Structure formats: structure tokens, C-alpha cells
Amino acid sequence: QVQLVEAGGGSVQAGGSLRLSCVASGRTFSSYLMAWFRQAPGREREFVAAIAWSSQSTDYADSVKSRFTISRENAKNTVHLQMVSLKPEDTATYYCAAPQDPFTIPTPTIDGYYYWGQGTQVTVSS
Q1: Which of the 8 DSSP states describes residue 61?
Q2: Which of 24, 87, 90, 124 has its CA at 20 to 30 Å from residue 16's CA atom?
Q3: For 75-95, what is each residue's pLDDT tens digit?
């Protein structure tokens, strides 16, 4: 059974930093695209960042470019999201996601992902 478990959320002031982690189990995800999405109250889930299985290709939402960095440690089945210069509008529940098939390229489309974590809350105060 595949599981994605996020950690690292919390409450910070604007301008602060957080590092989210997602640990995958039930499958070796070294061949799989991994991604982060987020959902704020009353809003649709939106793409944040994705990283290809080889780490050679990444994709970011325009709203987080230059502030967020996605990385992965395949030996640990883990993907990270380093977030700096956080803004109140970054407040959301952050979800880790992975597709059903290996070797896919990064995509911002929710339909491209099959496995989802339970989410970790990030709150940024002004």
C-alpha cells in the first residue's frame, strides 16, 4: 500500500522559512515524478512544484518561483520543499503527490497525480 506522509508544516511570520518533507512508502519512488500542491480554505487545490525522477527537471508555479525549492533524496524515498521569504498568501495545507506511472515529466495538472498525502498545514502571519 502506497503512503505519502508530509511533515514540517507550522506557523511562521512573513519573511520566514519552512522546510517540508514527504516520505513515501509502499513503493520505491526513485523512478517517479514527485510534486507539491497546496489548498487554502475556500480555494481549489493548486500546483506548487514538481521534480522529475532524475531531479534534472523541475517545475514551479509562478507565485513561488525564486522562493521555493523542490528537491529529492531517492535513497530515502523523500521529497523536500524548502520555502523562504514566506508570505501570508502562502498559507495553506500542503500536499505531496505522486503519479501512478514511472518516468513521467513534471506536470502542474492535478489529474496527473494518483497518490496523495494527508497534508501539512503552513500558516504565515503578517
Answers
A1: -
A2: 24
A3: 999 999 999 999 999 999 999
